[in-house]
Design a protein that fits this description.
alpha/beta; Lysozyme-like; two-stranded antiparallel sheet; binds zinc ion
């Protein structure tokens, strides 16, 4: 089980549901990417956790509350009922770090494999009718995606929309998936810039060696200086 609280908590305000580690659907879960969704309703956390009469919960790994900016709720660390069947080519693209080039319906893609074992799901509260997305909610989603991508060594291209996965779905509506991926990529880039690299280590080691050498040289100069002063004093004493 991936340690999702440790991965996510430095990047978002994280609400961890106590049963997150065990609350999941039976079956395999080996994620290769992330699918984004909108809930299409209001205050849907209970539905995302427990499911609906026609679909057993959990319905996503993570939930984003519209009224709680920068906050993500960790619902499940395992397989969830969120992606359903989708296009084989999109699954292959995710595995190859290639972004989908459009929605499944526009690409004429047909449903193939079930994606629930292959993708984390993020359900974000939004009516999906053109309702604007609060910036703090989008920030929480992008930061959560970046944290997962960084942990798995994925590029932002592995973050896809449900509508890119399957022609059956219109979500998430109200933002372009390409700009979402660009924003996540910039967060990943910032993280790279901050990361302490092997080159940084080598530079630090070189700087340390230089300072040690300088210190030795200074000590030698001081020793030589003292000796010269000694000799000058001896000479002065003889005169
Ligand atoms: Zn969806």
């Amino acid at each position: 089980m991936t340690d999702l609280p440790a991965i996510l908590s430095p990047h978002v305000t994280l609400d961890v549901r106590p049963d997150w580690a065990t609350h999941c659907r039976p079956g395999t879960f080996a994620p290769v990417g992330i699918v984004l969704h909108h809930t299409g309703g209001r205050n849907d956390l209970a539905i995302v956790v427990n499911g609906r009469p026609d679909l057993a919960g959990p319905l996503a790994n993570l939930y984003s509350d519209r009224d709680a900016p920068y906050t993500i709720t960790l619902v499940s660390g395992g397989r969830c009922n969120h992606a359903g069947a989708g296009a084989q080519v999109v699954l292959d693209e995710a595995r190859g770090d290639i972004a989908p080039c459009g929605d499944a319906i526009a690409r004429g893609l047909v449903d193939g494999p079930v994606g629930n074992g292959y993708f984390y799901g993020i359900e974000a509260e939004n009516l999906g009718n053109g309702q604007p997305w609060p910036p703090g909610q989008l920030e929480a989603i992008t930061h959560a995606c970046a944290a997962l991508c960084a942990h798995h060594g994925w590029t932002a291209n592995r973050v896809i929309g449900h509508r890119e996965w399957t022609r059956r779905k219109p979500d998430p509506a109200g933002f372009a998936m390409a700009s979402m991926r660009t924003r996540i990529a910039s967060l990943l880039h910032e993280e790279d810039e901050m990361a302490f690299t092997a080159a940084d280590s080598a530079n630090l080691e070189a700087a340390k060696n230089y300072l040690v050498d300088q210190q030795r040289e200074n000590e030698l100069l001081i020793q030589q200086g003292s000796r010269i002063i000694q000799l000058l004093e001896q000479i002065a004493a003889k005169q």
